[in-house]
Amino acid sequence: MAGSGGASLLLAPLLLLLLLAAPLLAQPAGEAACRPARAAFQALQPGAKWVPESPVPGSDLQVCTPKGSTCCSRRMEEKYQAVARQNMEQLLQSASMELKFLVIQNAAVFQEAFEIVVRHARNFTNSMFRNHYKSMGPRALKFVGELFTDISLYILGSDISVNDMINEFFDSLFPLVYSHLINPGFPDPSVEMTECLRAARRDLKAFGNYPKMMMTQVSKSLQATRVFLQALNLGIEVINTTDHLKLGKECGRALLKMWYCSHCQGLLLAKPCAGYCGAVVYGCLAGVGEIDRHWREYISSLEGLTKGMHGVYDMEHVLLNLFSLVRDAVVYVQKNGGKLSATVSRLCGHAQQRQYRSTNYPEDLFIDKKVLKVSHVGLEETLSSRRRCCLGVQDELDMTELIMKLKSHSDFYSSLPEYICNHSSAVQNDTICWNGQEVVERNGAKAQPGNHEGKMKGPEPVISQIIDKLKHINQLLKGMALPRRKATDKTPEEVEEESGDCDDEDDCGRGSGDGELRVRNQLRFLAELAYDLDMDDTSANKLLNQHSKDGAAVPSTDPSSAAPQPSPTAAIALALLLGCWP
């Protein structure tokens, strides 16, 4: 019994091989011989007019050249090759679907979150002027709106200089502060006087070192944010490029041979050998494989940037505390009003009209710092209570979560051939398989591909371009990553405070330390997409729906417009991302 059982096992592979080869071994004459090939072809390409009625020599075939007769025509060969290319394209898109959704989803959510942070920061600054500098508050809102509009545009890729936008803000603010707080009661300065004050502001260091501190903090945080978004958008471009890869002529012929030439011999059930499939796909994607090293470096560099986005690199922390820097800068002008007034009289005396000082000083000339401090803390408590109400600690979106998911796709390009063969019709466990010429044993020597199947070709121009872009963004990411801190007893907060390059004589040692928001490497506004502070927003002075440098539409951040409201797609993506979908 045992002997007969062993013989049965040995005969099984041979019987299966005979069954697969039966259509050609029997080779019945007439129409019946090509009937299976006709049915298979018609399932892929409606219309059987190109299928021979009976086996033909096939001398005109270029790829599926037969050893004997064949059931394929030249036109069938062309159609099969088109289908093979289409199959490959669909498999590539299927392979990248999860990764593509991950990057697109996060790029949209983070961009919207950054815009919300900018909007809240603008509201805080507007509120500070309205509540504590009533006489000049309405006019100051215009300059605040312009500053934060420029900040939004910069994050989205505009060529605006951070230093220029901050200098413009303080240049515009100084004539207003001077006329309302230093020389109250005077009529508004003339155009000539205003221009003189604007021009003199930097030489006078009217706001002390606060503009420089703001430039340092805003520049570093916005650069990191901008590069982060650029990197995510480039990730989408990289995936799209490989999704819509144009396969070369040799690749199309190899795919045809692997997937459909067996049909011409009537071997409809034969599947490609695993090693043969791997060699063919690897040869087709040889250029794409060149992306692998740069893709891994991209994820590693992106991780380095996100780890460093704290302190002066944390845009949420910096922008939400920007109003306190502006407040301290205005207070600095008030404290040095006498000295500034005398200097301005010398510099701009020719432009200053003789005016009589009014005895009625505006009520906001002298500011109670305790009130400012209480108001500052009040804003924070209101915001914190909103966060506690709307967002639990476990639901906070951490950039590390995105990086962890990206790292699980770090081998995406190197594993593409394996994915495609596993999800196509390649044989994994069957005893026999198709090697492009004939049906053979899966583990036999004939199942291994010939050298011609694995020919490597240099990357296509489009792949070379995407590699160059990856190299460039990787350099930017590495340049923005926070350098390793040397052994020191200083905390990150102390290192951050030193970055302002503030001198004692500038009286800016306090910075924005009172009630300062301490944050982690997380964005906490993602649950507040529908949340607005109870403040009247000044209308944007520069429309944000203009096109960026690359031609992409830039959404408006004006809360009165529809742009800041989350789209249904963004809301769904956000719910999925935070795991809150009911």
From TrEMBL:
InterPro entries: Glypican (IPR001863), Glypican_CS (IPR019803). Residues 494-507 have a biased composition (Acidic residues). Residues 483-514, 543-567 are annotated as: Disordered. Transmembrane segments: none annotated. The keyword Isomerase does not apply. Keywords: Cell membrane, Disulfide bond, Glycoprotein, GPI-anchor, Heparan sulfate, Lipoprotein, Membrane, Proteoglycan, Signal. Its main location: membrane. GO terms for biological process: cell migration; positive regulation of canonical Wnt signaling pathway; regulation of protein localization to membrane. It is found in: Cell membrane. Belongs to the glypican family. This is Glypican-3. It comes from Callipepla squamata.
